Amino acid sequence: MLARRDPYQLPGPTAPRRRPPRRDGRPSVGALTSPDISTPRPEDPVAATGPLHPLTNRERNQQLRTYDSHVKGGFDKIVDVLKRISALQHEQGFEQKAQALALDALGFPLPEHILARAWVTQLDMRSLFAWCVFETYKRTSAAFFTSNPLGGQEDTAFDAFIRECGFHLLDVSPCADGRLAHAISYALRLPFSSVRRRPYAGAMFDVERTVARWIKTEHRRHREGVPNQAHEDTRYLKAVIYHFSSLDPRHQGCAAHGSNDDQAARSGLNRLHDFRQAVENSFCCGASVTLLLLGLDTDTDAIRIHVPTADGATNPDHWLDAREVYGQTVAMAPEAAREVIGERVRQDAGGSIEEGMVRFISQLLENNISQIDFVRQFHNGAYGDAGHAERFIGVGIGFKEIHLRNLTYFAHMETVEEGATDLDVGIRIFKGLNISRGLPVPVVIRYDFHSSVPGSRERAVRSCERIAAAVHGRYRTLSRQGLLHTLLTVRDGDHYKPPEVLGSSLQSPVVEVH
């Protein structure tokens, strides 16, 4: 029998709502375009209203909903507030009225140097929009590190759990698409600080850098016994999360793979194989590496797990669907449901699978059941923003505080040249989201450093400045038109505190950014 709910797992429902309209004003997707992928329907236990699954953590669902609504609400009110301010620009006492309105509605003042020019020329709404996005991001980031809203700091219970499953570290590479930014804390319900996360476009992670991180991990095991002793029989678990759309598979799948779900899965698996092969070629004997391929439905947040066999083989054409598991166990008592989940995992592997992997995958499925019900409770079974709805692009290395769906598009890079593909995808997305409406693309650049390493902060600052110059150079036309703005930040990874703001492209000539 599977163990009872592990203590690391994150802990009242409300009535389901009608699907909201898309942010771009177009109607929500509501019909299938492919007959081989099922859509939630009223008779489907996953989509229907009514009682939640017995394994669903109701309290945690409400907590996550509150956090999600609060943060996104701060970004989504910006346009309406700026419209009201725009209507005031020719009135007497405009600057004072604009500042009062911004402080009341947004909670922060607007840049005086932009407001002061309104009487000479038209109010620069593009700069004001970017400023407001950056200010809202900074407030969100500060609140994340000071109030710990997701409760995801280092979790010793989770660390003990994965070691019991046979792993000493979990390294996950989701797609950089903003619809997967919440994959760790929401879809999988894992403590974010105990999971190594590096997003890449199409989940096509950098093999060489992943090998370097593996080497560092194994070195610490040998030298320091962290996260466990080197002689312990555990492995480095590397996972990829690709994504697909059950409601509009031909258009809302992974842009990096042309909305081709099969290509997304196979490319992710090939990259995993490349990583393992690289480790074996350099260190022989498999060298403590285990691979796991996951898929995420960006409409319902249901996961699919390509269950590996005991010898590490993974079939990209076969998976265990969390929605099927939900439907099979929704009428059962919790312990009976857990028993069935474990058996489904064993059956899916053809009977040849390590029990530690059974336990780990079973826990992922159980955790995801709560997220499936989260989408049922608060989004009527499927998200209204079926496509992209990100609020800004995050470029560089870091962003520990971003764990919300469709808040940020990630472009993980150390140089623009090596990350050009990821960044180009993000700019293309924002041409539809923002530029098509005359709004700029807000880009937050982040590099983490370690204060324990001499010169680390200075190198991070130089990286920020170099990347900012390269971004403005690569998209020179957008930059000159005021359709691209950057905010530069660095953060000390040795301490749990907010990032430090270095400056932005909106400063003229010196403006303190709060």
Q: What does this entry look like structurally?
A:
This protein has 514 residues and is of the alpha/beta class. It has a domain at 152-379. It contains 15 helices and eleven strands. It has a six-stranded mixed beta sheet, sandwiched between helices. The chain has a five-stranded mixed beta sheet with strand order 8-7-9-10-11. α10 (322-329) crosses α12. The model is unreliable at 1-45 and 509-514 (pLDDT under 50).
Summed up:
Its cofactor is Zn(2+). The chain is 40% helix and 14% strand.
Order of helices and strands: HHHHHHEHEHEHEEEHHHEEHEHHEE
Per DSSP, what share of the residues sits in E-state strands of 2 or more residues?
Answer: 5-15%
Q: How far from one another are the termini?
A: 54 Å
Secondary-structure class: alpha/beta
- Mean pLDDT across the residues is 88
- The side-by-side strand order for the widest beta sheet comes to 2-1-3-4-5-6
Overall shape: it is globular
Annotation, overall tally of beta strands: 11
What would the keywords be for this entry?
514 residues; alpha/beta; 6-stranded mixed β-sheet; 5-stranded mixed β-sheet; 15 helices; 40% helix; disordered N terminus
Task: Please describe the topology of this protein.
Blueprint: H1 58-76, H2 78-86, H3 94-105, H4 112-115, H5 125-147, H6 156-164, E1 167-174, H7 183-187, E2 195-197, H8 207-224, E3 235-244, H9 261-283, E4 289-297, E5 303-306, E6 320-321, H10 322-329, H11 334-348, H12 355-379, E7 392-397, E8 408-412, H13 420-433, E9 441-449, H14 456-474, H15 476-480, E10 484-492, E11 500-504
Parallel strand pairs: 1-2, 1-3, 3-4, 7-8, 7-9, 9-10
Antiparallel strand pairs: 4-5, 5-6, 10-11
Helix pairs in contact: 1-12, 2-5, 8-9, 10-12, 11-12
Subcellular location: Carboxysome
GO molecular function: carbonate dehydratase activity; metal ion binding
Domain Carboxysome Shell Carbonic Anhydrase N-terminal: 53-145
